[in-house]
Design brief:
Blueprint (H helix, E strand, L loop, with lengths): L2 E10 L3 H10 L5 E5 L7 E6 L8 E6 L4 H5 L4 E10 H16 L5 E2 L1 H8 L9 E2 L1 H11 L23 E8 H9 L2
Parallel strand pairs: 6-7
Antiparallel strand pairs: 1-2, 1-5, 2-3, 3-4, 5-8
């Protein structure tokens, strides 16, 4: 059986929400995204739909050269490469395509984020915050296990995923420049 790889991307963007989360949670990287390839042109998460409007939250396809990352060029990141099976990859890909196909149904879970800080799970229909989304699709794919429900999983708890290796840590702009050279 061939091994597949996915990438967990943890970022510190500098947005007001990112700074607020860091203030209350002391997380180094308050945002989590998931990429199913190493191009990093389609990273899946929940965040700003419009980089200029912090209240336009929902399901997003992120790119290191666009959107919030372009608006806040000083962003820092930590990237994990995670080895998974073909079956896990297939299940994960199907889940992501479900979100992509129904993207307008999904919104950002601001109240859930607040309840996470209070250690009280709050699941609201089609609403997610970033680490809740990443945790849920990883758990449903059999890639990650946790005794906690996705609504209580912080970005730093995703660092414990099995079969991971650190690919990069540092400035997103430096990472993008380095990738262009290859």
């Amino acid at each position: 059986m061939n091994q597949k790889y996915i990438y967990l991307v943890f970022t510190k963007t500098g947005t007001w929400l990112s700074r607020l989360i860091m203030l209350f949670s002391h997380l180094k990287y308050p945002h989590a995204s998931l990429s199913i390839d190493d191009s990093f042109t389609k990273m899946y998460s929940f965040g700003r739909i419009n980089p200029n409007n912090p209240f336009s939250g929902g399901f997003v396809e992120e790119d290191f050269t666009k959107g919030v990352y372009k608006k806040f060029p000083g962003c820092q990141c930590l990237i994990y490469k995670v080895a998974i099976t073909e079956e896990q990859f297939s299940v994960l890909e199907q889940q992501i395509q479900g979100f992509v196909g129904e993207r307008k149904r999904y919104r950002y879970n601001f109240l859930g984020l607040l309840s996470l800080l209070l250690d009280k799970p709050l699941k609201i229909g089609n609403r997610y915050f970033c680490s809740q989304f990443v945790a849920e699709v990883l758990i449903k794919s059999g890639i990650f296990q946790s005794e906690k429900v996705p609504e209580l999983i912080r970005t730093d708890e995703l660092y414990k995923i099995p079969n991971q290796e650190v690919v990069y840590e540092g400035s997103i702009s430096d990472f993008v420049r380095a990738k262009k050279r290859y």
